[in-house]
Design goal:
The chain has helices at 17-34, 75-90, 109-120, 129-144, 146-157, 172-183, 264-269, 271-281; strands at residues 4-7, 45-48, 166-170, 191-195, 221-227, 251-255. The chain is α/β, with parallel strands linked by helices. Helix 6 links the parallel strand 3 and strand 4. Helix 5 (146-157) packs across helix 6 (172-183).
Length: 283
Amino acid sequence: MAKVVVVHGIGKQYLGPHTLHGGVAPALLDGMKVAGAPQLRPTDIEVAFYGHWFRPPGAKSDSHAWTHHDVTDGFEAELLMAMWQEAARIAPDRVPPPAPAGTTKAATPQTVQRALHAISRLLPSRFTDRFLIGILKQVRHYLTDDETRARVQRSVAESVTDDTRVLVAHSLGSVIAYEALCAHPEWPVRALVTLGSPLGIPRLVLDRLRPSATWPPGLRDWTNICDRADVVALTKQLSPLFTTPDGQAVVDVLIDNGSHAHDLVPHLTAAPTGAAVAAGLLP
C-alpha cells in the first residue's frame, strides 16, 4: 500500500497510472535523495490517475486539433488572458503585455491568437497552441462539470489507503487533491505537497473550490512549490489564502526548473519537494 500518492496534472489523458509511475517514482526518489531524506521503495509511491475522464470516447490519440477559434468566451478566455498577463510580468523583455482592460475584447480570435503566441515564448517547443488550449478546456471542464468532478474525485479516493501519509499534487491535480482532502477528513494523510498549483487564481479557481479556501481537516503540513516563471501557477503564494484556525499557513517555496517551469518531473526532483515528502512521512 502506497505511503505517497501523486496526483498528476493536466494533459495526461492518453497515459495511465503505470505509464506515469515509471517516470514519477524515480523522479520523486531523486528529489528525496538530493534532500538527504530516507529512501522509499518505488512501490511506496502510487499515481492517482484520472486522465481517462478527459479522453473523448473512441479516441486513440490526441485527435483534437484545437485552434485559437476554439477558445470559448468566459472562463477559457479569462484564464488565457490571466496567463498572458503573468507571462508578461515574468519576462517583460520577451513577452509583450496584453492591451489594457477595456480596450479590446479578450475573446476575439485575433486577441486569443496573440495571447497564445505571447505565452508560448516562455514555454518549451512542445507546448503548442493545441496543448495550451487543452489546458484551458480541462481546467474549465473539471470546475464546471459536476459529473466529471465526481468521477475524478472517485479516482483519487481509490488510490488513498490506510497507509497513505502524503499527497503530492501537480497543476490541476492540486485542485483535485485539495477538494478530496476536504471531502475525506477520515483519511490518514498528514501532508499535502502542491506543485505548480493554480489554486490561488482569484475568481476562476479559488472562488470555485468546494469548499472555499480553508485548511483541509486533519492535515498537519502543506508545502506549496512552484517555479518563478510558471504561468499556470499564477498566484505563487498560497500562504495568505489557506491557514489553520490557529494561524498555521502554507509554506511557499520558489524553485528553478529551467526551461520546463511547469513540468512535473523537475518539480519532483527538486530538493524542497523531497524534503517536504520526507517531513510528511515522519510520525
